[in-house]
Specification:
The protein is mainly α. It has 21 helices and no strands. It has 2 domains: 241 residues; 200 residues, Hypothetical protein af1432 (Orthogonal Bundle). α1 crosses α6 and α10 runs antiparallel to α11. The longest helix is centred in the middle third of the chain and has 42 residues.
């Protein structure tokens, strides 16, 4: 069971107290709460969330998914148009109440379930209550009209937009807070990128919520408002299906990499680091997000063909015989055959096949040269050699990053594409690199003054197990 830090529990407790302060005024007999509207929206919200309940978000109090460490807002994916409509239609305390049933009933995949549900309820209640308060301040309810009265377009867009923006700001602020307290992240890291990723989807949900509120206030009443939700409902279902498929892809990748790690214990963690270095290079080259995903797959799976290599050869401590080298050199072809039928890998399959080709044509398996070698393969070749040199193995000590880069630059043009080497150097200058030990044993410290000639050059990667 996960242990939630005390700071996170205090943060959640404060959020619960604030949420109670927001919602309790609606329960007073003299509050004049429009209970029919509150109950309808409170029942509609959990129903509309059904298609979106998949593991999309990361964090200590939300499901974790993701590919490269990219963070997403905490908590389950939500169908926010209903809550934004509530913020536009109801007083703050009443609007906050509409979020509670859906938050309490939401699926929780990781313990502690009760604490996660409490956090979700407090987070949404505060966001909806704050959004409704801003909407009321800007008189959004008056601009929506009532019955046959026409909504005050386009002026209603300003208070409605402010309402949706407030909802987004409060959610992301609380998400960052729980990252900082539950995951012990630095504040700058905890909030980094949250708002930028949330603005676009919240803007779309805000427009749908405004349409729903306008129809709700019209002469046709709540049934008409449901038609505004239908397109969003279908798109939410499609979005959830896409992420379920993506999660299945990630599980496939993890299973394949785990199989290689079990067989070749000396390179444990190597595949993930090559994937990370490949993404750094590709990002410097200006590749867009879909191509970054493919090159990450290529880096992670570049050695999958080792599953077809005898374990005695992979785990051999001494130099390889010519016959053993020939066996090792078959692993790109083995890997290509293994992943041939996995459609979502796309061009990553060619990188798996050609990541040991060399710019001068002396590589394997086909002796391609220069730009005959696919771009993804040239990226992975540099990432692979870099991690091989900066990781401690049974047969070599780890080199410092600067020394490894100098060796890559020496071999640029003959073994490696100079563009890829330069891109890696720029990326490491900007982001740095944390070297790790891939063997089961701890790293052997390199004595001061050890000559560079005592550590193998990138050509040692051909000898594997690397």
């Amino acid at each position: 069971m996960m242990v939630v830090p005390r700071t996170a529990r205090v943060f959640i407790g404060c959020a619960l107290l604030a949420a109670a302060a927001v919602t309790l005024p609606a329960l007073r007999p003299a509050a004049g709460t429009p209970w029919p509207t509150v109950l309808l929206l409170a029942a509609l919200y959990p129903l509309c969330e059904l298609p979106a309940r998949c593991r999309l978000t990361g964090g200590a109090l939300g499901g974790r998914a993701g590919h490269d460490g990219g963070a997403a807002p905490l908590g389950p994916v939500s169908f926010y148009p209903v809550l934004i409509a509530a913020a536009l239609l109801l007083p703050p305390s009443a609007a906050a109440l509409t979020a509670l049933p859906g938050a309490v009933l939401t699926r929780v995949d990781q313990p502690p379930a009760a604490l996660r549900r409490a956090w979700r309820a407090a987070q949404l209640a505060l966001a909806v209550g704050a959004a409704a308060a801003v909407g009321r301040t800007l008189r959004c309810d008056e601009s929506l009209g009532l019955g046959p009265q026409t909504p005050d377009f386009p002026y209603v867009l300003l208070p409605a937009g402010a309402t949706a923006l407030t909802f987004c700001l409060v959610l992301t602020a609380l998400d960052g807070g729980i990252r900082a307290t539950a995951e012990q992240q630095p504040p700058r890291t905890a909030w980094h990128g949250l708002l930028g990723r949330a603005l676009a989807p919240h803007a779309v949900h805000g427009l749908a919520g405004l349409m729903m509120a306008v129809l709700w206030r019209s002469g046709y009443g709540p049934p008409a408002a449901l038609f505004a939700l239908l397109p969003m409902y279908l798109s939410s279902w499609g979005f959830a299906q896409y992420h379920r498929e993506r999660a299945a892809h990630q599980a496939t990748i993890r299973a394949l990499v785990h199989a290689v790690d079990i067989k070749d214990r000396y390179t444990r963690g190597h595949s993930e680091r090559v994937g990370r270095a490949s993404v750094l290079i590709a990002h410097e080259l200006g590749m867009d997000e879909p191509r970054l995903e493919v090159v990450r797959f290529a880096g992670i799976l570049h050695d999958i063909g080792k599953l077809g290599v005898p374990t005695r050869v992979l785990r051999k401590d001494g130099p390889l015989t010519p016959e053993e080298r020939r066996i090792i050199e078959l692993h790109p072809e083995y890997g290509h055959e293994m992943v041939r039928g996995i459609g979502f890998l796309g061009e990553a399959r060619t990188a798996i096949l050609h990541h040991h080709e060399r710019m001068d044509g002396s590589g394997y398996p086909y002796g391609l040269k220069g730009h005959e070698i696919p771009e993804y393969a040239r990226v992975v070749a540099v990432a692979d050699a870099f991690d091989a040199m900066t990781s401690t193995r049974c047969y070599s000590r780890a080199r410092p990053v600067g020394t490894a880069l100098a060796e890559l630059e020496r071999c640029a043009g003959t073994q490696f594409d100079p563009r890829m080497v330069e891109a890696l150097a720029r990326a490491l200058h900007r982001h740095g690199w944390q070297t790790e030990v891939t063997a089961d044993e701890p790293a052997v410290p390199t004595p001061r003054g050890t000559p560079q000639a005592q550590t193998p050059a990138p050509e040692a990667a051909l000898q594997e197990p690397a």
